[in-house]
């Protein structure tokens, strides 16, 4: 993984000094809260419902074990013993004191980490495929390019006060695992006929209250032009993006207003002045960065069947089936540690679990971990022959729930329990659904199903692209939930369709049950839920869900546990 | 009004400044407003409407609102002793791109001044985008604001102040011992 050189260290160190001074000036009253707000947001510090929340950058989700241990340390020393991994592949802590944030940054800097631009109206942490570097379908490792973009966007003087937040994702494989279509800029690595590496550039995707899939504005951008072309996009957006209404300030609205062709024309015009300038990447610089992402020193191993010798162990078989992914090197596999155990808010991990995951990484996976945008943790380089041992250990720490890609592997924002933006709680709904469907055989029979839930229209839980999407809404001061189906991320990205009037929290498990009943009745043998939903449309689902009243009495399971 | 003495940051120093920024009040018309004598920085619209008379004056400046397009001044920039860019809110970042374009696309080399909601914590990025003068908000210490110019000693990306990104300014060396197989995997 990337290692800081003297310049990276210097910039992060000077950042801490700057931020420490800003905090002191805020406390001394020299900065008003209004003035401090964008400064702290650019450092990932939010004021939430109960306390400050600090979001720490995990560039493209890649972590060293010592960095994971630092999270455990922060959880213990500055928070309440746990942290929350997010859909931006970052981690956030919910109970932070303002006065302590500079010290946290100093602790982070000791392991080459920071909280720069994890929030605010600037270019956010660049995300990438969690299986980068090990996926068999990879054309090229996207991480060096994500790192190039990370450095370029860090404190970019011109793009620090954009109309709105700005998210970039990059994919290097045939299958898109970075959800590029729902990002402000989505980049896919492609090779042209001459074998040269470049990017297909997609702009204007996003969720929130106006969900839109990105539009391709350039089929092939030679990779050396990555920064100048991105700069051209940013400059057009910075000047002409709307600033009168924060809900219409994302780049997708600009694209919609002027049209994709006109937007692309303006970018090309801007780029004509930049193309080939000193920001053009040199081969030397790319080689320097790529050198940090070389394959590990893999042993020469035969590919084996990890189940051999454990054929009667159904629990292990389930885990292998769901949580273990193929690796391009024979004898290796990628393991997903599930942070979706029933009874735990999705994406949460305790300090003890973080330390333990770091240990696992050291012992089984070259000391590296990855955070997924589905809020799980990946050990990307595990020897197949060690899978059984790893599984037993992970299981003992509550990290081996065999549910990756299943109904209970929900993406879920922190919702109304923590977030001051939320209209509704999400964690208790997730808990209630997880409890209702806590039957592993049933879940495996349902198969791949992405259930994404957001506590408000901002869509941190990516509900628009969930096979089943749940959106918390406020109606006359009470919490309701709107359900959509047929959404998808990846190569067949789609925005889900709302099935009808919203439901109460208590009704939600039954609603999911009814949706599944329709699926089980209508599916063809090879169909996933989303395929059936897209083939049939919402009508049969809607009809069945609303046909008879849903019981609303009774306490919602998990309702009070996470407040 | 023309004699009003204010202080601004010019380069890296606090200096006295005798320019006046003309702002139109509600109902005032850019074309008919009387531009006072002396050193005045007029709105772009006033310059465009009164160009003939204003260009005969010994010292005139123009300011751009964040919604103005700097290309409108193409071919005229040598007529101004000062070009200013207004920041209506410190969170409105359009002025940075305007400054970039004035310097890099239109080749303006004279004084480029940030006016409006200009605060200490914005000065470093303003300088990088090509500003060299800052009329900081009068309710805040200008001496403190000066500290905002020297926050970072290195930056990653190119901008107006240095058109070479870090990777062209310094030889950056991969430090990890295990990463020797340079170039493989491209």
UniProtKB/TrEMBL annotation, chain A:
<dbReference type="GO" id="GO:0016002">
    <property type="term" value="F:sulfite reductase activity"/>
</dbReference>
<dbReference type="GO" id="GO:0000103">
    <property type="term" value="P:sulfate assimilation"/>
</dbReference>
<dbReference type="GO" id="GO:0050311">
    <property type="term" value="F:sulfite reductase (ferredoxin) activity"/>
</dbReference>
<dbReference type="InterPro" id="IPR036136">
    <property type="entry name" value="Nit/Sulf_reduc_fer-like_dom_sf"/>
</dbReference>
<keyword id="KW-0408">Iron</keyword>
<feature type="domain" description="Nitrite/Sulfite reductase ferredoxin-like">
    <location>
        <begin position="343"/>
        <end position="396"/>
    </location>
</feature>
<feature type="domain" description="Nitrite/sulphite reductase 4Fe-4S">
    <location>
        <begin position="412"/>
        <end position="545"/>
    </location>
</feature>
<dbReference type="GO" id="GO:0020037">
    <property type="term" value="F:heme binding"/>
</dbReference>
<dbReference type="InterPro" id="IPR006067">
    <property type="entry name" value="NO2/SO3_Rdtase_4Fe4S_dom"/>
</dbReference>
<dbReference type="GO" id="GO:0009337">
    <property type="term" value="C:sulfite reductase complex (NADPH)"/>
</dbReference>
<keyword id="KW-0411">Iron-sulfur</keyword>
<feature type="domain" description="Nitrite/Sulfite reductase ferredoxin-like">
    <location>
        <begin position="48"/>
        <end position="110"/>
    </location>
</feature>
<dbReference type="Pfam" id="PF01077">
    <property type="entry name" value="NIR_SIR"/>
</dbReference>
<feature type="domain" description="Nitrite/sulphite reductase 4Fe-4S">
    <location>
        <begin position="119"/>
        <end position="272"/>
    </location>
</feature>
<protein>
    <submittedName>
        <fullName>Sulfite reductase</fullName>
    </submittedName>
</protein>
<keyword id="KW-0479">Metal-binding</keyword>
<dbReference type="InterPro" id="IPR045169">
    <property type="entry name" value="NO2/SO3_Rdtase_4Fe4S_prot"/>
</dbReference>
<dbReference type="GO" id="GO:0046872">
    <property type="term" value="F:metal ion binding"/>
</dbReference>
<keyword id="KW-0004">4Fe-4S</keyword>
<dbReference type="Pfam" id="PF03460">
    <property type="entry name" value="NIR_SIR_ferr"/>
</dbReference>
<dbReference type="InterPro" id="IPR045854">
    <property type="entry name" value="NO2/SO3_Rdtase_4Fe4S_sf"/>
</dbReference>
<dbReference type="InterPro" id="IPR005117">
    <property type="entry name" value="NiRdtase/SiRdtase_haem-b_fer"/>
</dbReference>
From TrEMBL, chain B:
<dbReference type="Pfam" id="PF06073">
    <property type="entry name" value="DUF934"/>
</dbReference>
<dbReference type="InterPro" id="IPR008318">
    <property type="entry name" value="UCP030820"/>
</dbReference>
<protein>
    <submittedName>
        <fullName>Oxidoreductase</fullName>
    </submittedName>
</protein>
């Amino acid at each position: 993984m990337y290692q800081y050189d003297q310049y990276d260290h210097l910039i992060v160190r000077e950042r801490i000094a700057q931020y420490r001074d800003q905090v002191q000036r805020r406390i001394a009253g020299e900065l008003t809260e209004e003035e401090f707000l964008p400064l702290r947001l650019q450092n990932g510090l939010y004021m939430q419902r109960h306390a400050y929340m600090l979001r720490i950058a995990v560039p493209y989700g890649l972590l060293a074990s010592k960095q994971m241990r630092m999270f455990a340390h922060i959880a213990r020393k500055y928070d309440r013993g746990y942290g929350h991994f997010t859909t931006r592949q970052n981690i956030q802590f919910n109970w932070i004191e303002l006065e302590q944030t500079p010290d946290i940054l100093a602790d982070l800097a000791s392991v080459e980490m920071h909280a720069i631009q994890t929030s605010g109206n600037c270019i956010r942490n660049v995300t990438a495929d969690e299986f980068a570097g090990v996926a068999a379908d990879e054309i090229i490792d996207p991480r060096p390019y994500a790192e190039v973009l990370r450095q370029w966007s860090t404190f970019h003087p011109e793009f620090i006060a954009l109309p709105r937040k700005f998210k970039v994702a990059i994919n290097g494989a045939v299958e898109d695992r970075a959800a590029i279509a729902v990002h402000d800029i989505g980049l896919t690595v492609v090779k042209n006929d001459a074998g040269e590496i470049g990017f297909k550039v997609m702009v204007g995707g996003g969720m929130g209250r106006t969900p839109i899939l990105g539009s391709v504005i350039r089929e092939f951008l030679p990779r050396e032009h990555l920064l100048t072309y991105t700069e051209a996009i940013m400059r057009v957006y910075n000047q002409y993006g709307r600033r009168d209404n924060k809900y219409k300030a994302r780049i997708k609205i600009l694209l919609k207003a002027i049209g994709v062709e006109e937007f692309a024309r303006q970018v090309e015009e801007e780029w004509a002045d930049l193309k080939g300038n000193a920001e053009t990447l040199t081969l030397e610089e790319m080689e320097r960065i790529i050198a940090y992402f070389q394959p590990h020193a893999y042993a020469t191993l035969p590919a084996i069947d990890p189940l051999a010798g454990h054929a009667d162990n159904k629990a292990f078989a389930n885990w292998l089936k769901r949580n273990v992914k193929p690796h391009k090197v024979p004898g290796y596999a990628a393991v997903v540690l599930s942070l979706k155990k029933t009874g735990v808010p999705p994406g949460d991990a305790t300090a003890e679990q973080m330390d333990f995951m770091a240990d696992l990484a050291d012992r089984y996976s070259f000391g590296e971990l990855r955070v997924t945008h589905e809020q799980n943790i990946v050990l990307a380089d595990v020897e197949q022959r060690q899978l059984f041992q790893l599984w037993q250990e992970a299981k003992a720490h509550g990290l081996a729930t065999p549910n990756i890609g299943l109904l209970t592997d929900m993406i879920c924002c922190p919702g109304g329990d923590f977030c001051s933006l939320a209209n509704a709680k999400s964690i208790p709904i997730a808990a209630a659904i997880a409890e209702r469907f806590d039957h592993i055989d049933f879940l495996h029979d349902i198969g791949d199903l992405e259930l994404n839930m957001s506590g408000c229209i901002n869509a941190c839980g990516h509900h628009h692209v969930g096979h089943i999407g749940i959106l918390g809404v406020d109606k006359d001061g009470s919490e309701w939930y709107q359900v959509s189906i047929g959404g998808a991320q990846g190569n067949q990205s789609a925005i889900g369709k709302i099935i009808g009037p919203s439901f109460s929290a208590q009704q939600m498990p039954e609603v999911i049950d009814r949706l599944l009943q329709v699926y089980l009745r209508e599916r063809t043998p090879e169909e996933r839920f989303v395929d059936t939903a897209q083939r049939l449309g919402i009508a049969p689902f809607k009809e069945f869900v609303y046909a008879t009243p849903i019981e609303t009495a009774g306490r919602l399971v998990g309702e009070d546990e996470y407040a | 009004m023309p004699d009003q003495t204010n202080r601004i940051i010019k380069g890296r120093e606090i200096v006295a400044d005798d320019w006046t920024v003309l702002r139109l009040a509600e109902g005032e018309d850019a074309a008919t407003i009387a531009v006072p004598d002396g050193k005045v920085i007029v709105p772009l619209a006033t310059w465009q409407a009164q160009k003939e008379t204003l260009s005969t004056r010994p010292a005139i400046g123009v300011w751009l609102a964040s919604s103005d397009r700097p290309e409108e001044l193409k071919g005229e920039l040598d007529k101004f002793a000062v070009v200013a860019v207004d920041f209506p809110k410190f969170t409105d970042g359009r002025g940075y791109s305007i400054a970039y374009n004035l310097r890099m696309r239109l080749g303006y080399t004279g004084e480029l001044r940030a006016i409006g909601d200009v605060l200490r914590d914005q000065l470093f990025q303003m300088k990088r985008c090509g500003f060299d003068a800052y009329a900081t908000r009068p309710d805040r210490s200008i001496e403190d604001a000066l500290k905002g110019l020297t926050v970072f000693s290195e930056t990653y990306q190119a901008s107006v102040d240095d058109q070479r990104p870090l990777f062209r300014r310094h030889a950056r060396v991969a430090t990890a011992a295990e990463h020797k197989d340079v170039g493989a995997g491209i």
